[in-house]
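Form P-L/3: holo structure prediction, ligand zinc ion.
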Amino acid sequence: MPSRAPRIAVLGLHLEANAFAPPTLREDFDHQCWEEGERISELARLVSHLPSELPGFYARMDATGPWEPVPVVVIGAPPGGPIAQDVFLDFLDRVRRGLAAALPLDGVYVASHGASSATGDEDSDGTLLELVRRIVGPAVPVIVTHDLHCNVSERLIAATDALIAYRTNPHVDARERAAEAADLMRRMLAGLRTAKAFVRLPIAPPSVTLLTAEGPYADLIALGQTLTGGDVLNVSVTGGFIFGDLPKCGMTVNVTTTGAQALADGVAARIARAAWADRDRYFRALTPLAEAVEIARRAGAGETAPVILADVADNPGGGGRGNTAWLLAALHEAAIPGVVLGVFVDPALAAEAHALGEGQRMRAVFNRVEDSFAKRFAADAVVEKLTEGGDVGRRGTLAGKRFTLGPSALLRLEGSGLRVVVGSLRRQLAEPRMLEMHGIDIARVPVVVVKSRGHFRAGFDEFVPAERTYEVDTPGLTSPVLGNFAWKRLPRPIWPLDAETTWTPPGGA
Ligand SMILES: [Zn+2]
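OUTPUT (holo model):
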């Protein structure tokens, strides 16, 4: 261990890349997070827009002894298409120059989502880690944290000393996992060296089957935790992000031990066998649109307690554009009272409402520019509330974190009374403040429609429990109905998409 404070480089790349969505551009990062140098250390010790791993890592490192953070570059964009290649190369160049200038380093912490790709690089996360390893050399600890929706490559594993993934979905343990990375960093600074096992399974579950409150994935995470302790430092079972549509897609098991390879291999094999044996559970029935309208009708009439309808196929948190109108149109036309829908992403409509002002009437035209899923919908409306869209989250995945929807408007549609929060930036409705900041008292709303796949659960469960939450089957970029997509690069056959998928786990079935 060095006698001076250890110098730990910090960097990260947060993007979940959906191969079916338009490319992610520099402006998408600029709107969410593109920070370099010392500014990262400042923000990591405040309430900020940085990914939650950064404050988590800094807090634990600060609490466990002296260290010298060497922040390089941390970028994050909402889930979208692959990064435009020139933007990715520019990012890599900043990493390269930043690390080279910072040498000698004693460790590197990489806080990445783990499901990025670039338009010219299917394994941008692996490329980043190979670059890091090449610059710092084989002896310097390199520890990575990932979202559990990551697509892990062999290259990435080879370049790292440990991969630590989230264990909660909705993701409420990002700070804890970063703190775990900090603790491991301290042990590695003191001389510990790790062994790793890595297994990828031919299972690419739809995201709606990857919740961790209950279900097959919850059971796997729990099994991993029962096998953790002693020489087993970490077990990370990643669910993957199938919409990446890449050869490296698939569930993975990652085990890190205190240098005992056979132990790591044995634990990984045991978990992989359990995952494969349980594969029949990665199916989930969605609620047809007509049935969802009927559920809403009963709740709106007070015949049932309040409900949530989740528009899982148009989740900006998975690359969706937040602008499909199937539920909006159906609920408006059914004239169901008390419906609130958010966040509908339509910057032109939000700007028009802002130009008119609160209390004004307008012809609200949603999706004046159509695409394959976003169809035009129009209704007379009143502008009830205008905001600039920025706030700090209070529950779940955005708790204590700054977010912004961009200029936003609450519109009340005439005829149905349906209220819709229209935003300018693509953000999933995971956080109650996104509605509350528009004057909505969620406890009094019988039907909330969320454009979110699952993270809303950690924000809205104080209002509506899981048993009254319905995942609605509509067309969209993030539909859990995997047969809806023209897959190009996914390894086939893969479960549950291909019923004929066969596999022999390590050590045999
Ligand atoms: Zn995720």
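COMMENT: Residues 56 and 495 are 35 Å apart (CA to CA).
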